[in-house]
Amino acid sequence: MSIVIAGRSLVLVGFMGSGKSSVGRELAKRWNFRFVDTDAMIRHKYDLSIPDIFAKHGEDFFREAEYQALVRLRGICSSVIATGGGIVTQPRNLPLLRALGPVVWLCADQTTILNRVGKSTHRPMLNQANPQESVARLLKERAPLYHRAADLRIETSGLTHQEVADRIVSGLDELRAQPRMDTNRRE
Ligand code: S3P
After folding, report:
1. For ligand 1, mutation pick of 125, 126, 127, 145 (most atoms within 8 Å of CB)
2. Shortest-distance atom of ligand 1 to CA 21
3. pLDDT (tens digit, 9 = 90+) per residue, 23-33?
């Protein structure tokens, strides 16, 4: 476990299909940390799948639930927290994410994302006539938001989850020596 995290948690943000849950589980196993997934918290709270929450209550309700999940996580330590791909779209979430610990942005190119999630049926944001167009548009809209939220950006295209986890570990050590992206995210 990196000294950067001591007494805090690690937060993973990034687009759908960037590997947040798989990499998060891998890191939690390595560090003997708890693995927390904000989507899972919401599913359990409402006893509904994410697509059902979107279908029954709409996206705004889901975004409020996502914010409430972060509020509930306040102060949690020794955890790896995987977040939903849209968590950075609400500015009120950013201070809550940052307060949890270092924020790592897992990114991947459009082709990789499409290969991973293009045919997904459990992602309401991609349940459109043209998922390719949705991915392209959302990636463009969200890239600056991930950049702003994150301390560290890790490219995941073509890498295994283990390799991504290795890169996060090295990235955190470099961050300790020289805080990166920090200046980008301040007002
Ligand atoms: C969403 C991403 C999903 C989930 C919901 C909305 C988004 O999580 O939170 O379907 O807006 O990008 P994953 O990133 O884990 O797929």
Report:
1. 125
2. 15
3. 999 999 999 99
The CATH fold assigned to 3-174 is: Rossmann fold (3.40.50)
| Mean pLDDT calculated for residue range 132-143 | 94
Q: Where are the domains of the chain?
A: 3-174
Name beta bridge partners: 80: 10, 35
Cβ < 6 A, ligand 1 pocket = 16, 20, 39, 50, 84-86, 123-125
Comparing CA positions, the residue from 11, 3, 34 lying closest to residue 105 is: 11
Question: Does the global pTM surpass 0.70?
Answer: yes
Are 88 and 142 contacting, i.e. CB atoms less than 8 angstroms apart?
A: yes
